[in-house]
Design brief:
Chain A: It comes from Scopulibacillus darangshiensis. Chain A: Pfam families: BPD_transp_1. The complex is a heterodimer of chains A (about 290) and B (about 425). The relative contact order of chain A is 0.13. Chain A starts with a helix and ends with a helix. The model of chain A has no long low-confidence stretch (mean pLDDT about 90). Chain A is about 75% helix and about 0% strand. Chain A has a domain of about 200 residues: MetI-like (MetI-like fold). In chain A, helix 3 runs parallel beside helix 7, helix 10 runs antiparallel to helix 13 and helix 12 packs antiparallel against helix 13. Chain A has 13 helices and 2 strands; from the N terminus they run αββαααααααααααα. Chain B is α/β, with parallel strands linked by helices and about 425 residues long. Chain B folds into 2 domains: about 180 residues, Periplasmic binding protein-like II (D-Maltodextrin-Binding Protein, domain 2), CATH 3.40.190.10; about 210 residues, D-Maltodextrin-Binding Protein, domain 2. In chain B, strands 1, 2, 3, 6, 7, 8, 9, 10, 11 and 12 form a 10-stranded mixed sheet that branches. A two-stranded antiparallel ribbon of chain B has the order 4-5. In chain B, helix 12 crosses helix 19. The chains are: A mainly alpha (about 290), B alpha/beta (about 425). Chains A and B meet through helix 1 and helix 12 of A and helix 1, helix 3, helix 4 and helix 18 of B.
């Protein structure tokens, strides 16, 4: 009887496994396979070209621009979303503002609920060089020198896109931290107060160590998002002007659907896969060590 | 017992998955049942007024041919490009599908996805003789016809006659005059030419025309052949310099941050005096409070190219090489492009039909007739660079021109990138 039962769990697992293999693992492996070919959706044949897609990729300046932009995305998101989100959460959970906490939390969380397409269109108006709110605001406070075509300038376009992402996601990350802060026993803060620790000290010596686990989660999450981001730059700038605000995914899309270079696009996808794989391996390692604490 | 239930549940799930998969093959409905033929027709206008126009034509056709049923599917522009690429790669592509002319069509033809229609053109002369010749040119590859042009779109300068009259200006005939006119307009506080280039292709339209003016026609012709394009004629750099000049003197600032639609808004609101527009946009113009004029892109004085040619292209339809009913599909396209439907196209959609003598006093506005005259006068259409050239070359152009307009790149560096891409295309075309 028991020997029969041994394979029974696998029967239950099989349907999910089939779906997973069919729709997740098979595409991943076939993508890696396709990256060794030169092919397009119109062409009848696929030429095996070995590593040439990857060699071309590492000679391609646009690829490095895209990678650099993704790294900017990652660094800025870590600082603003994880760092800023934690500070914001701590302030919202502080006794002084607790009366308005629910209201403020809703305000900060609201952008998370709006469709990214709507937000991108809103920010397009916001950044408009002639009628946009941002330039008008700068003019009205006498900072005319700072006004520029935010999305039309190669130096500022990617940062304008990143800024929008930060605005949208801050509330979400802060919410994660708020949940985690609420779990901290209040005795810790009371004890610290009695010992004469101020708000800042309490933050660094109680709040930060206590939300460490959540900070890991938030770090990995924003990191992965920074390397797979697509909607924001695609809608807001389309990678332009030139290729200055291109990220890996928009360049992939561009190669696949504008240039019909499917093999090349597959190679970019493989690189993205490698990056996110490394991040998730690090995540697994860190969490395993976290369990031991 | 529990085990049995579990097993049955699993079998159900598997059966569900398997039938789900096989569903793809059984639902291909392009072949008809009995005598009734069903044709799949795919175009890029889920929007009005094109949609109702095409629906009406389909209905009329079905009434006249009761044994043919047409199944229409419409997907908007960019999504259409992607979808048709995917569908043509499958075993059940639509029988009749929309295609831009030039390189987009050529790409489909090279992949053997389009049916050779030459014999139909020769067989039914009464129909094919009524199609305007320059529109046919864009669907002709290696001397064979692969598509049916339906309408034509051309790029012309539109200008605000009220402003021009007030300042005593005349529509410029040469590039120097255009610059002089622009300077005067700017002095009076107008934006001479409205220009939004966030998408990249609007600058492509300018350079497409400028190249034709400054580069000899045979060189352009050679560069458009994928296996031979070098783009090293000095005329190309000159064309970019002219564009730079326009950017300095005539365009509004920050064009890269403004969308193409912006230019039409600035023009119709009376802030800008000129706009380089496509004739298909005539239908999109709101009720404007001024008189509209139009002129061809001015001649470049020392240019070595064709000084009359207009950037533009017909748009039309192709028939899949895998269709089971080529005669029925062609019958529909001939019906779509007969004189009566051509006239209705002008009236209902405000497009310039590819059929001769369809723009008349009783179905069009004066500006449409003027635009039509300009096209017939030029008698040649130059394909857009983003559909006429290999997309890699066009893309290098469009991306780099954005940088050039921002002052981050010089014309000769733009051409270096274009030449580099042209080389890649040459290699892959061999």
């Amino acid at each position: 009887m028991t020997s029969h039962r041994k394979w029974l769990p696998f029967v239950y697992l099989a349907p999910v496994l089939v779906i997973l293999v069919l729709f997740v693992y098979y595409p991943i492996f076939s993508n890696v396979y396709y990256s060794f070919f030169d092919w397009g959706s119109f062409s009848n044949t696929m030429h095996f070209t070995g590593l040439s897609n990857f060699i071309n990729l590492f000679k391609d300046s646009v690829f490095f621009t895209a990678l650099k932009n993704n790294i900017y995305y990652a660094i800025i998101s870590e600082i603003i979303l994880v760092g800023g989100g934690l500070v914001l959460a701590a302030i919202l959970e502080d006794k002084l503002v607790r009366r308005y906490a629910t209201f403020l939390r809703t305000i900060y969380f609201l952008p998370v609920l709006i469709s990214i397409t709507v937000i991108a269109l809103l920010f397009e108006f916001f950044y408009n060089p002639q009628t946009g709110l941002l330039n008008k605001l700068l003019e009205s406070i006498g900072l005319d020198g700072l006004t520029r075509a935010w999305l039309g300038n190669g130096d500022t376009a990617i940062f304008a896109v990143i800024a929008m992402s930060q605005w949208q996601s801050l509330g979400y990350v802060a919410m994660l931290f708020i949940i985690s802060i609420q779990k901290i026993p209040s005795e810790l803060y009371e004890a610290a107060r009695i010992d004469g620790a101020g708000k800042v000290k309490q933050f660094f010596h109680i709040t930060v160590p206590q939300v460490k686990e959540m900070a890991f989660v938030a770090t990995i999450m924003t990191l992965t998002q920074a390397f797979t981001v697509f909607n924001e730059p695609y809608i807001l700038t389309g990678g332009g002007p030139g290729h200055s605000s291109e990220v890996l995914t928009t360049y992939l899309y561009h190669s696949a659907f504008n240039e019909d270079a499917m093999g090349y696009a597959s190679a970019i996808a493989t690189v993205i896969l490698a990056i996110t794989l490394i991040i998730s391996v690090v995540q697994l390692k860190v969490f395993r060590s976290g369990e031991g604490d | 017992m529990r085990k049995v239930v579990g097993m049955i549940a699993c079998i159900f799930v598997f059966a569900f998955i398997l039938t789900g998969c096989s569903g793809f093959t059984s639902s291909s409905g392009s072949s008809g049942d009995g005598d009734k033929i069903t044709l799949k027709f795919m175009h890029r206008w889920p929007k009005e007024p094109e949609k109702s126009y095409l629906d009406k034509v389909v209905k009329e056709f079905e009434k006249k041919n009761p044994n043919i049923k047409i199944q229409t599917e419409a997907v908007l522009n960019d999504s259409y490009k992607e979808k048709i690429r995917v569908l043509l790669g499958t075993n059940h592509p639509p029988d009749i599908f929309f295609s831009w002319s030039g390189e987009f069509a050529h790409n489909i033809v090279r992949g053997n996805k389009a049916l050779d229609l030459t014999s139909y053109y020769n067989k039914d002369k009464t129909w094919s003789d009524k199609i305007i010749e320059p529109t046919m040119e864009s669907y002709r590859f290696d001397g064979k016809m692969y598509g049916v042009p339906w309408m034509m779109d051309a790029k012309l300068f539109f200008y605000n006659k009220d402003i021009f009259n007030k300042l005593g200006l005349k529509p410029p005939k040469t590039f120097k005059q255009l610059i002089a006119v622009s300077k005067k307009l700017k002095d009076k506080g107008y934006t001479p030419i409205a220009f939004g280039n966030k998408e990249g292709w609007p600058a492509g339209h300018y350079i497409g025309t400028l190249n034709r003016r400054t580069v000899p026609a045979d060189v352009i012709k050679k560069d458009h052949i994928r296996s031979q394009g070098t783009f090293d004629d000095p005329g190309y750099i000159k064309a970019l310099e002219k564009l730079q000049k326009l950017n300095d003197v005539a365009f509004n600032k920050n064009s890269n941050a403004l969308k193409y639609d912006f230019s039409r808004q600035a023009f119709t609101s009376g802030k800008a005096a000129m706009d380089y527009m496509e004739t298909i946009e005539i239908g999109d113009l709101p009720d404007i409070g001024f008189e509209l004029g139009t002129f061809n892109f001015p001649a470049v004085e020392d240019g070595k190219g064709d000084q009359k040619i207009i950037s533009g292209a017909p748009e039309g339809f192709m028939i899949s090489s895998k269709t089971k009913h080529p005669d029925a599909a062609m019958k529909f396209l001939e019906f779509l492009t007969n004189k009566e439907n051509g006239k209705k196209l002008v009236k209902d959609v405000k497009y310039l039909s590819s059929v001769k003598n369809t723009v008349t006093k009783d179905n069009s506005t004066p500006i449409m007739r003027k635009a039509q005259q300009e096209i017939l006068h030029a008698n040649k259409l130059a394909p857009w660079i983003d559909t006429g050239l290999d997309i890699r070359i066009a893309d290098a152009y469009m991306k780099d021109m954005q940088k050039m307009l921002n002052g981050e790149m010089a014309p000769k560096d733009v051409m270096k990138d274009v030449q580099k891409e042209a080389k890649r295309v040459r290699v892959s075309a061999k």
